[in-house]
Design a protein that fits this description.
Two copies of one chain form a homodimer. Chain A is an alpha/beta fold and about 425 residues long. Chain A has two domains: about 130 residues, Urease, subunit C, domain 1, CATH 2.30.40; about 260 residues, TIM Barrel (Alpha-Beta Barrel), CATH 3.20.20.140. Helices cover about 40% and strands about 25% of the residues of chain A. The first copy, chain A, has 17 helices and 16 strands. In chain A, strands 5, 6, 7, 8, 9, 10, 11, 12 and 13 form a nine-stranded parallel β-sheet that branches. A seven-stranded mixed β-sheet of chain A has the order 3-2-1-4-14-15-16. Chain A is globular, with a radius of gyration of 21 Å. Chain A starts with 7 loop residues before the first strand and ends with a strand. Chains A and B meet through helix 4, helix 13, helix 16 and helix 17 of A and helix 4, helix 13, helix 16 and helix 17 of B.
Chain lengths: ~425, ~425
């Protein structure tokens, strides 16, 4: 599964040399190296720069992969995805709450079977890599087996994955429910076994407020206090009926976000999926707690949830990562997700440049997941996860690329027209883990 | 280019046995033949039914293509596409009017060169076929050469194509302008040379009201009167600034549609692209004149034009075909267009079933183009254009298809996740003209 280590990669590199404060000057931070060299050791970047400068330090037998016609970018980061929904992508005709009952819950029931969980974990991780996604924040099912299967599949490739078993003790089919006690015990067991083991990280994962009792949300908060470096991931303000339901279930809370805040579930490692219909106070709450938004373009369109207001997020200075939200989302491809994000922005007369998009998918995603000290660009010392994009993956892409006069235009076309084929090679931990057939 | 003729095709067939009046009962008209046989002769369908019934009439040396695992549907119909914009798909950052000036017009200038037009016509037709599109209504450039090149490329494959040179005598760069006289003479020349030659059909093609003087629109109307079986294609109500501009340019006309109506350009073979921001009177005008709408989902999102109101079109009983609108659209794929159409409907809380989508792409598209007496389903006597869809085109599609329990669910997944790879074979005029690599 893991190819032998290489010493480096030569080609055209595009990344961001530094963080973009307040989401303003993306162009100033972009770094393009036309003929570059990336040197790797034990899964980390040990040198990055021009080939002309770096070539002299290569040993005679150095093993270098060369990609003269492609574009090498940091691995894509998917900030919100459901591993046990890969098989129900494109389920017809409903909006969020009916879709959960009709499609998501029945699919998730199967993951109590560890053999099925293992099979689908392999499938899921392979799909991530096929699409150039090297890090993801992943929802499993309520069954601890599903999380174990996913962590094992990621561990075999030494992928940096954030994941957690879902907490859900009401408003779902009986065989998908745990209890506050089971939620606590299973989560603790998984945290002890996987969190910070190699590159694995654990996220306390209440599905969303309507499927957890106050007691269970309290347990989630307790876990966050007991392990201060845990992640928390859930859903927030995706659909208007959902918001209405939360108000009915938690009449004492002043907003949907306030439910999570009350139970201690906001913070710099708390990732909230969707955030489409936020009230002013919720924007402020996200900023005040340094919480993070996972923007899920294909899902928001497919489920008809609404149009995410990225301009507002920029203004409020809230971190935003991009996400596929498979299986409410319709594709594992971050490129496709960025393309749909662009369309969502266009419908709102907001700008969304290819450079900002790439940032969001790489270093910006790393910041959203508080991983930017470890990955997200080609800085020396960082973990060596990167993808090779092929501007001639299809006949049409080749024609379009041929007409491109700038790297930014080329990147935009790859994003709008791209899919899994655009990713010709994916590297994780310095090793080639996917090669397009 | 054209393979030798075959006698028939065996496989799973899905089409519509009859027209769906008033866009209501699509399910009642759908026809699924699980093990079917389609017999062909000289480009036409001579028999269609169950394999078990048809096999006896086969000669011993009959040449039959078999597709046991695929799904065979009528060829897709694209009701609005620009041949000279294939190379500018995915041009960044603007809405309609700026996009035209910055990208479309510069690209179209190149088509005055007949060699370039010929090269791109071959490219364009190959892309149509790669995506399963067997009939399209196509805008060329202002240069008659572009139309000649396209007609020639279509004629070599005996494709049924509707096309016309663009009429444009103001508000565009000088080298893309004709005059009312040139518009008349060139159009007449092209009509005489190509209209009704084999399967080719001509469309009088004023780009849109802002780029034609009243004199030129009058010439367009004159051509429509002189050749009563011509088509007319243009744009209508795509973008709010555009509508405002039309009001300024034609202050005496009571609406955008009224400009076209005044010059005799509405009618049953008049195809209006977009129609997003129609007023009540324009809906009535489209119905009264039996005019047609080309719905362009990927373009409407990419250019941020707005959300087409399909429910209203159903209610007003106006014919609607689906269209890619390349290069404002982002894909040649009708499947992708239907997927984006679904998302547009979801955002408006409107239903759009896979069956209605397939209807719109096949028999409904044929009706929109007044070609349903010639093509659009597997009725005996019709022209033999059809495509073979592969439910296992990608690893993910294969997994999803495996979980499908109904043909409708399978079709929906193909539409939401599909792209050019989903089309494994395309037949035109009874011949295999595209086979996926």
């Amino acid at each position: 599964m893991r190819n032998s280590a290489i010493d480096g990669v030569r080609g055209r590199f595009l990344d961001f040399s530094e963080s973009v404060e307040k989401r303003s000057d993306f162009d100033g931070a972009v770094r393009y190296v036309e003929d570059g060299l990336l040197l790797l050791k034990e899964g980390h970047i040990v040198w990055f720069g021009d080939w002309s400068e770096g070539r002299d330090q290569l040993l005679e037998d150095a093993h270098i992969h060369e990609y003269p016609d492609q574009l090498i970018v940091p691995g894509f980061i998917d900030c919100h995805i459901h591993f046990p929904q890969a098989e129900i992508i494109a389920a017809y005709g409903e909006q969020l709450l009916e879709w959960l009952n009709n499609y998501a819950f029945p699919a998730e029931k199967q993951y109590g079977d560890i053999a099925y969980s293992r099979e689908m974990a392999e499938f899921f991780v392979a799909e991530l890599l096929r699409n150039g996604t090297t890090t993801a924040a992943v929802f499993c099912t309520v069954h601890h087996q599903s999380a174990e299967a996913l962590f094992a599949a990621a561990q075999r490739r030494n992928m940096r994955i954030i994941a957690g078993k879902v907490l859900m003790d009401r408003n779902a089919p009986p065989d998908l429910l745990d209890t506050p006690e089971i939620a606590y015990d299973d989560s603790r067991m998984l945290i002890e076994k996987y969190h910070n083991q190699g590159r694995l990280l654990y996220a306390v994962t209440p599905r969303f407020a309507p499927t957890s009792t106050p007691d269970q949300l309290a347990v989630a908060g307790q876990l966050m206090r007991e392990y201060p470096d845990l992640y928390m991931q859930t859903h927030l303000s995706e659909n208007k009926e959902e918001i209405q339901w939360v108000q009915e279930l938690f009449p004492d809370r002043k907003s949907y976000l306030d439910v999570y805040e009350y139970f201690g579930l906001t913070g710099p490692r708390s990732i909230f999926g969707h955030c489409i219909h936020l009230e002013d106070g919720e924007w402020k709450g996200l900023y005040d707690t340094d919480s993070v938004i996972a923007f899920c373009p294909t899902s928001n369109l497919f489920l008809g949830s609404g149009l995410f207001d990225l301009e507002r997020a920029r203004k409020e200075n809230v971190r935003v990562g991009v996400a596929t939200d498979v299986g409410g989302g319709t594709s594992f491809s971050i490129l496709t997700s960025l393309s749909e994000a662009y369309k969502i922005m266009q419908l709102q007369k907001q700008k969304f440049s290819a450079i900002e998009a790439l940032y969001m998918a790489t270093l910006g995603g790393a910041e959203a997941l508080s991983l930017d000290h470890l990955l997200g660009n080609f800085e020396v010392g960082k973990e060596a996860d990167f993808v090779v994009l092929d501007p001639a993956a299809t006949v049409l892409q080749a024609k379009r690329s041929e007409k491109s006069e700038t790297i930014v235009d080329l990147l935009f076309a790859l994003m709008i027209m791209g899919d899994d084929r655009t990713v010709s090679h994916t590297y994780v931990d310095g090793r080639l883990v996917h090669k397009r057939e």
